[in-house]
Amino acid sequence: MNIVVLMLMLGLTQNLLNAEYSDPLPSHGAPSKIFLERKNHIQNVCEKYRREFFRPEHYALFRSGIKELPSLQHYFDWKGNRYLFLKAYKCGSNTLGGYFNELQQNTSFGAPLEHPAVCLDCRPSQAEKVLIMVRHPLERLLSAYRHLIEGEGWKFFLTNNELRSGAEEYLDTNNITWTNFVDHIVLNNGLNSGFNVDVMYRGLSRIIFEPILLTHWAPYWFTHPLCSEEYNPDIIIKMDTIARDFEELKKELDIPEESSLKRYITVGDKSKNLVHSSKISQEYYSMLSERQVMDLYVMYKLDHILFDYTPDLYLQYAASKPEEP
Predict the structure, then answer these.
(1) Burial letters 236-248, b for 16+ CB under 10 A, else e
(2) 257: how many CB neighbours lie within 10 A of its CB?
(3) Which in 76, 163, 269, 289 has the greatest CB count within 10 A?
(4) Facing residues of 73 across strands?
(5) Which residue in 295, 292, 275, 289 sits closest to 320, CA to CA?
């Protein structure tokens, strides 16, 4: 899979807008079972692939002895326990990470968090529980496009002259449509400047433009070895059920009932429509052919399997577009 060589793990400060989550709480299901069911599901998937290393993504699920990726890890201490939040860009990581920071500062809730954000001395083996927040992989891809390309959020990553690159020139001089983004950049590695996978481990001392962007739509299986003992998540929070999941999270971690979650939206200078990507997915995916959507599914297939998503709705959106000869 081409995208394997294009990832890096740097978190940068971006423009944030606050908005309360207003998703209605679902009335079905038993919230106390949600996290356990999701944990059991991902463990079953991991067991299936445990000895099937013939594909790179299967091997990546279990890789051990890797270098730490501190900008994609958020440790915090709460009521005598240490927790590890695995960050995935465009999945609400700013929302949940921001919540942990806010909780630390609100002393009325009791003992503050001791390690909000990056903790260079922390290790996953110290964590009582591992958390991750995800969303549908194809919705996440659309969110990355709207933020970084359509809204020109990529310009937030230009912090010094070292970042001048062919990719920057390409983004600055071309009007990249959604279909161009899918075909040229995502499916055909259009931003690859020829660097190899080792570049991801050199990123803490020097920012490299292309992989910073590409990390925003990198597969979950690449950025975190989700089947390894250290990083196998105990709590999987989904953006599509965030209101219900947050209530369950408060019970799991014994967080005060009055605590509330705020949404942080990352936008670009030219972002106009701040409607959530889930509300306008049909508008964008109806521009693609079924073949294009299926190619995207193949690229993110393991992400779909790990977190129990299907591409069916997105294939339906694309069904009305005729295939090109």
Answers:
(1) bbbbebbebbbbb
(2) 8
(3) 76
(4) 86
(5) 289
What are 6's two structure tokens? 């294009």
What is the three-class DSSP state of 27? coil
**For residue 276, what are the contacts with CB-CB under 8 A and spacing of at least 6?**
none
Predicted pLDDT at 116: 42
Determine contact, residues 186/1, Cβ cutoff 8 Å: no
**Average pLDDT for runs of 10 along the chain of length 325:** 36 32 37 86 91 66 59 79 88 81 56 49 84 96 93 75 59 86 86 53 50 82 87 94 92 85 74 83 95 95 96 91 56
The pLDDT assigned to 105 comes to 61
- Count CB-CB contacts under 10 A for residue 120: 9
Is there a contact between 244 and 25 (Cβ–Cβ < 8 Å)?
yes
Question: Strand pairing partners for 236?
Answer: 132
Rounded Cα distance, 212 and 10, in Å? 6
Taking CA 131 as the corner, what is the angle to CA 129 and CA 135, rounded to the nearest 5 degrees? Answer: 160
Torsion from C-alpha of 63, 69, 74, 77, nearest 10 degrees: 70
Cα distance between residue 298 and residue 233, in whole Å: 24
Alpha helices by DSSP H, listed for 126-280, are 137-144, 166-173, 178-180, 209-214, 220-223, 242-253
Q: Of 263, 152, 210, 204, nearest to 2 (Cα)? A: 210
The answer to whether residues 317 and 294 touch, using CB atoms and an 8 Å cutoff, is no
pLDDT score at 50: 81
In angstroms, the Cα distances linking 258 to 35, 86, 105, 246, 250 are 21, 25, 15, 12, 10
Residues paired with 266 in a beta bridge: 16
Burial state string for 106-118 with b = 16 or more CB within 10 A and e = fewer than 16: eeebeeebebbbe
- 313 alpha-carbon distance from chain centroid: 20
Find the length of the chain.
325
Task: Report pLDDT for 141.
Answer: 97
